[in-house]
Amino acid sequence: MVNIQLVRNLSQKTDTKIVMVVVDGIGGLPYPGIGRTALEEANTPNLDNLAAISSCGLAEPVALGITPGSGPSHLALFGYDPLKHEIGRGVLEALGVGLKLGPSDVAARGNFCTVDDSGVITDRRAGRIPTEENQRLIEALRSVTVEGVEVILEPGKFHRFVVVFRGDGLSGELDDTDPQHVGERPKDAAARTPEAAYTAGLVNQWIAKVKKALRNEYPANMVLLRGFAGLPKIPSMSQAFKLTPAAIAGYPMYRGLARLVGMEILETGSDIKDEIETLKAHFGEHDFFYVHVKDTDSSGEDGDLRRKVEVIQEFDSHVPSILDLEPDVLIVTGDHSTPAKMKGHSWHPVPFLIYSQWVRPQGVREFGESMCAKGNLGVFPSLGALPLALAHALKLGKFGA
Amino acid sequence: MVNIQLVRNLSQKTDTKIVMVVVDGIGGLPYPGIGRTALEEANTPNLDNLAAISSCGLAEPVALGITPGSGPSHLALFGYDPLKHEIGRGVLEALGVGLKLGPSDVAARGNFCTVDDSGVITDRRAGRIPTEENQRLIEALRSVTVEGVEVILEPGKFHRFVVVFRGDGLSGELDDTDPQHVGERPKDAAARTPEAAYTAGLVNQWIAKVKKALRNEYPANMVLLRGFAGLPKIPSMSQAFKLTPAAIAGYPMYRGLARLVGMEILETGSDIKDEIETLKAHFGEHDFFYVHVKDTDSSGEDGDLRRKVEVIQEFDSHVPSILDLEPDVLIVTGDHSTPAKMKGHSWHPVPFLIYSQWVRPQGVREFGESMCAKGNLGVFPSLGALPLALAHALKLGKFGA
Questions:
Q1: Chain A CB contacts of B360 below 8 Å
Q2: How far, in Å, CA of B87 to CA of A373, rounded?
């Protein structure tokens, strides 16, 4: 059982340092013809040695049988119950393209689409227009203005973009304009609450002007918006846990997730090597470091066991550099499993390792799903990762006399 | 952790098929002089082979240290929190004798008892009259009528029977008439809520007429009723989990429990062989099958380890026939433990096995309490069985982006 409120109440500032490495999608399933997971198949002498002097277990991201997206699974590792703090689709998309959101911004995911002369949708993705065409259209739409609100646009791939409405008194409580079916008209952005009526009015004005601006741009002659959302109200890790946290992540979405919980975002490159260099360079400045390794997840999503094995081996080669920094606590885990066999995220609990002078060591020189299943931490919620980190860094006071 | 509301929200209809075999009371304790549980003592080559390619663990029916009845322990396996959905004693008894209850029926457990001339109870069980005598008396009482309500009676063994009151506007919120002690008078059926006053009036009228009808039937010259209850309000498995479930159970109570959650009840015999034949015959028609094996529990209750071993071995011999059907998910577990050493249900968590192409296989060729205690699923709530089944059948969508 995890009690985050109690952890917050008992947390205290100390000089000890925590490094939490999130190897995205690290967990897997035995791969057909190989019979081992990527982590088991990988040659990881450093992680194996570390496991022997660490405590191990399996971390369950959200709940039994639940496959999480990156948002909820990261929130859990950062010490926020993902069932209480949901991140809207629009916000996650904005984070994914590197937009920085303010507290009263409302973000949404956009699609270019095709409508016929009567305004009925004939293609919800405008024939998946080339990304360059998308960029040209977004550039043109940046001159469409609505009084009372700033509109920020960022193109994505093909027909996708992100829109952020910035201004006073905005609310993300709006229904999608995307009816999800061809043969229907785009819907108005309808307010779900009285407070959102003002925002709905502004958004609908903007859409009307956009429609006019796009009228000769067939097939991308209209837009659909969905997943309107403002930033979730989350206390920072500094407020909640008395930490001075920093994030080292090569990909925008993970920097965005870290910013959501108040981490300082350190400039870094996209290689693991760059990230470790960044960790070294800033190790004196913070007491909590989130380090994100992305390509285990992308290779898992691609069903590419070999590549996933290579990424794990590459990370393994940097483990000694992390240990050289002498962190008081080092956690190596993932946000969720991404078995190459499934080519996607899955519900399987995630290998977890915590190293500190205060652990009960596992004694087994092998970091993998099978060993972690027999680990002395058992199967526990990912939400317990931060409490374990704080405890092993001696950052939690005693409960009761 | 199990979050059933989330599982409901994420569940989706697919063509995959789940078979959940509930080997009633399968869990046990090492038997004196043998040192092994019935499951460990049994020769189960098929279950052992299956365990090696399955994920295993121990399922805890209700909570640590809690010994459950069949009602709550089955509800948990079907995906319903047994602490939120209580099944009244009367309802369970009615299901046990095969009565089909309607939504406004009120059922109660009855005892024939003995009262003296002043109406004071001298024997709460009427000297445990023979079952044949019970049947004769019940037949006679079927002619006792009360205006506004239909009364359905079904004899049980010795002094026991079940009564169902059927009519409009009835409520099960009534106190027992059984004072639980000799030397007291039977109590009136007292209404616990204002809405139940009408029902109390009808029930007390019926009892008064029954007392008169039984006045010359010493020792069975009065009745005591307890456990008044109507059907619990439970969404069907179809509503809750988008399943089309079917139950294959030889004993009435288990068919009744399955009917409570909206399963279709398939006609079958009382042998395991009959049940497997029924599964084969209907395998195309449903996507979830609950198969109940009863005699592991009854032999455990009798303290008959040998018989329990035989029943387990008999079930084991049918495992290949189940696998021949190629279910996407096969679960083998029990609703609770019934150690022969204890001659009754117990609180010990229950051996659990889930087989699917998406499991992390256990790799150990042995299905039993000790191996499951080291299983990669750990100890988890029985309420997680259905979420695990749905996840491994790919019937759950992703949570969050």
A1: 29-30, 37, 348, 369-370, 373
A2: 36
pLDDT tens per residue, range B134-177 = 999 999 999 999 999 999 999 998 999 999 999 999 999 999 99
pLDDT at B270: 84
Please give the pLDDT value at position A354.
Answer: 98
Picking from A65, A68, A73, the nearest residue to B388 by CB comes out as: A65
Domains annotated for chain B, with CATH where assigned, are: 4-86+234-392 (3.40.720.10), 92-229 (3.30.70)
Per-residue pLDDT, averaged over B66-75, amounts to 96
- In chain B, helix, strand, coil percent, each to 5? 35, 20, 45
The kind and range of the H/E element at B399 are strand B398-399
* Partner-chain contact B400 A86, CB within 8 Å: yes
Cα dist from B14 to B305, B315, B392, whole Å: 41, 29, 12
Phi, psi of A71 (to 5 degrees): -60, -65
Judged by CB atoms closer than 8 Å, whether chains meet at B401 and A83 is answered as: no
Please give the residue of chain B at the shortest CA–CA distance from A29.
Answer: B360
Mind giving me the DSSP string for B298-366?
HHHHTT-HHHHHHHHHHHHHHHHHHHHT--SEEEEE-SSB--TTTTS-B-S-EEEEEE-TTS-----S-
- Does residue A139 sit at the B interface (CB-CB below 8 Å)? no
In angstroms, the CA A58 to CA A206 distance is 48
Q: Do the Cβ atoms of B401 and A70 come within 8 Å?
A: yes
What CA–CA distances, in Å, run from B70 to A173, B76, B342?
Answer: 45, 10, 17
Q: With an 8 Å Cβ cutoff, are B360 and A379 in contact? A: no
Q: Which of A36, A64, A343, A374 to mutate to test the interface with B (most CBs of B within 10 A)?
A: A64
When CB atoms are compared, the residue of B2, B361, B363 closest to A64 is: B2
Residue in A30, A66, A72 nearest the CB of B396: A66
- For residue A269, what are the contacts with CB-CB under 8 A and spacing of at least 6? A250, A275, A277, A278
Q: Residue B186's pLDDT is what?
A: 97
Please tell me if residue B64 touches chain A, with a CB cutoff of 8 Å.
no
Is the sign of the CA dihedral B6, A181, A163, A147 positive or negative? negative
Partner-chain residue, chosen from A65, A86, A374, that has the shortest CB–CB distance to B396: A65
Residue A41 three-state SS: helix
Token match 């918006």: residue?
A225
- On whether the CB atoms of residues A397 and A12 are closer than 8 A, the answer is yes
What single letter denotes the amino acid at residue A356?
S
CA distance A173 to A171: 5
Q: How far apart are the C-alpha atoms of B382 and B368, rounded to whole Å?
A: 17
| Burial class of residue A333, CB neighbours in 10 A (0-12, 13-18, 19+) | buried
CB interface of B with A, residues 1-30, below 8 Å: 1-3, 6-7, 10
CB contact under 8 A, A374 and B374: yes
How remote is the C-alpha of A264 from its chain's centroid?
A: 15
ipTM for the whole predicted complex goes beyond 0.85: yes
Measured distance CA(B205)–CA(B147) in Å, rounded: 9
